[in-house]
Design a protein that fits this description.
Layout lengths: L9 E3 L2 E3 L31 H14 L4 E5 L7 E2 L5 E5 L6 H6 L1 E5 L4 E6 L4 E6 L7 E7 L13 E7 L3 E6 L4 E6 L2 E9 L6 E2 L2 E2 L6 E4 L2 E9 L15 E9 L6 E4 L17 E3 L1 H10 L5 E5 L18 H5 L10 E2 L1 E2 L1
Parallel strand pairs: 4-10, 6-23, 11-21, 19-20
Antiparallel strand pairs: 1-2, 3-5, 5-8, 6-9, 7-8, 7-22, 9-10, 11-12, 12-13, 13-20, 14-15, 16-21, 17-18, 18-19
Length: 339
């Protein structure tokens, strides 16, 4: 049975995340804008249209820049892995990126160097130079009121809990996934990765992508279909729609670590999947149980390289490349301050 690229967004700690090749689960709704109330007088005639436009523009300018979403969730909701990024989505396009970035502060109990990178007009991502130290707290604060012209905004703070250092290495040539927890090898799981053989736009989409992935979410049972490759007719021999247990998502292009849907004879021996990392029932269930968003899953041995824009694959960029996305001089890199 062939599995991979699914049709529903994965969730982790009650967080819905939309995948590029899947049905959208919806993005976080922007926070409502705080618009100052203006007094009205029924005794005065309505101002000319020109003045009404000017007044509206003035009110709009006074609306403070805010934050629509912060990922991951706070310390009381989830623990995160040592590769986790801090993803900040503003409630609208940021015109002065340098000023906004300068207002973002990260404090860690065990500091490491980190920097922000802008990935869109509204979104900035914080990544560390090396992985976070495990078993600590990290506090993010957006000093929005310190941005020039944004003094009426409310500052925002979120505290994260970093869990164990779960770092897995998937060797697609030896067909094994080795999982280390806080530096100690705790499990070797026989796997089967992407077999290759389906070329789309010059890319073999049946190959698992090699590179440093981060776990982004997980579902006890995930629905995986062939719709990602345009096959929706049940009469088509390539059609499938399967309920796959213990699915941990590692990219936006539909890659998971999950239980193999049968074909157990290939695990540890050959690559037979459509790109996912298939594992034994016991191994997949165990991995699902320890998985935290932001855990590291490094995949080796294939010719298809992971794009850094695919999901949370920010570790695909070198530290020098990463800092070039900052709006501040010298990449804005600095050690996260002592908490």
């Amino acid at each position: 049975m062939n599995t991979l690229k699914r049709a529903a967004g994965a969730s982790f700690a009650a967080v819905a995340l939309a995948a590029a090749t899947a049905c959208s689960t919806g993005a976080a709704a922007p926070a409502p804008a705080q618009v100052a109330a203006s007094a009205k007088s029924t005794a005065s005639p309505a101002p000319p249209a020109r003045l009404r436009v000017a007044a509206a523009s003035t009110t709009q300018r006074k609306t403070p820049l805010g934050i629509a979403d912060i990922t991951p969730m706070g310390e009381n909701v989830e623990k995160v892995g040592v590769g986790f990024p801090i993803i900040v989505t503003f409630d609208r396009k940021v015109t002065d990126r340098a000023a906004a970035e300068a207002a973002l502060q990260v404090q860690a109990d065990k500091p490491v160097e980190g920097a922000w990178r802008w990935v869109s007009d509204r979104k900035a991502v914080y990544r560390t130079r090396t992985y976070w130290h495990p078993h600590q707290k990290v506090t993010f604060t957006a000093h929005l009121s310190q941005i020039p012209g944004n003094e009426s905004a409310k500052d925002v703070t979120r505290r994260f809990a970093v869990g164990a250092a779960n770092i897995s290495v998937v060797d697609t040539k030896k067909h094994v996934m080795k999982v280390r927890r806080d530096g100690k090898l705790v499990k070797s799981i026989p796997i089967s990765a992407g077999r290759g053989g389906l070329i789309r736009n010059g890319v073999d989409v049946y190959l698992t992508t090699s590179g440093v992935h981060l776990t982004m979410g997980k579902k006890r049972v995930e629905t995986m279909t062939s719709a990602w490759m345009g096959v929706t007719d049940p009469k088509n021999p390539l059609y499938y729609k399967l309920q796959i247990p213990w699915a941990v998502r590692i990219s936006d292009s539909g890659e998971y670590v999950h239980q193999s849907a049968g074909d157990y004879q290939f695990l540890g021996k050959s690559n037979q999947s459509h790109g996912c990392v298939r594992a034994t029932p016991a191994g997949a269930r165990w991995f699902y149980g320890i998985a935290q968003r932001g855990d590291v899953v490094k995949i080796t041995g294939t010719k298809r390289k992971l794009d850094w824009r695919n999901g949370w694959s920010y570790w695909q960029l070198t530290w020098t490349q990463w800092k070039k996305g900052s709006a501040l001089p010298a990449g804005g890199a600095a050690a996260a301050q002592q908490g």
